[in-house]
Amino acid sequence: MVNANDLIEQQLFKMLRRTQAIHVRTASGEVELERSSYGILCLLADEGPQRLGAIATTFRLDPSTITRQAQAVVRLGLAEKTVDETDRRASVLSLTEVGTKAVVEARDHRRRMLDAMLTEWSEEERTSFLDAITRFNDTVDHWVLNEITVE
């Protein structure tokens, strides 16, 4: 007999694949954003300029990976890298005007798509889904931040 956790794992993987499909289908605007670029730019839009190390911590990635991804958004003119005034050894990444516009356009397009996809969902269903996915993400964050493992 299959238990609920088995089905949840299958659905999470399916959601991961669908999220990639949504990313591809919602590419719009003058700049086509790769998934990693989109994530970094959204973080900067939501939380303001960030040290590269803080971005790596947020995404739980190796700093060298974030450095490469940051170089890509800087090359595209979507962000700029400056020296951190509080610690001149560190770099801070911030959105440019073009980057801000790209994030706004991409988010608007994605949100219109979600509106269309969820048009038959009641407000209660949307709220219930939001509550569940938020709780799940908070639980994952707790496990990752506290390096909890299963033996």
UniProtKB/TrEMBL annotation:
<dbReference type="InterPro" id="IPR000835">
    <property type="entry name" value="HTH_MarR-typ"/>
</dbReference>
<dbReference type="GO" id="GO:0006950">
    <property type="term" value="P:response to stress"/>
</dbReference>
<protein>
    <submittedName>
        <fullName>DNA-binding MarR family transcriptional regulator</fullName>
    </submittedName>
</protein>
<dbReference type="GO" id="GO:0003700">
    <property type="term" value="F:DNA-binding transcription factor activity"/>
</dbReference>
<keyword id="KW-0238">DNA-binding</keyword>
<dbReference type="InterPro" id="IPR039422">
    <property type="entry name" value="MarR/SlyA-like"/>
</dbReference>
<dbReference type="InterPro" id="IPR036390">
    <property type="entry name" value="WH_DNA-bd_sf"/>
</dbReference>
<dbReference type="Pfam" id="PF01047">
    <property type="entry name" value="MarR"/>
</dbReference>
<dbReference type="InterPro" id="IPR036388">
    <property type="entry name" value="WH-like_DNA-bd_sf"/>
</dbReference>
<feature type="domain" description="HTH marR-type">
    <location>
        <begin position="9"/>
        <end position="138"/>
    </location>
</feature>
<dbReference type="GO" id="GO:0003677">
    <property type="term" value="F:DNA binding"/>
</dbReference>
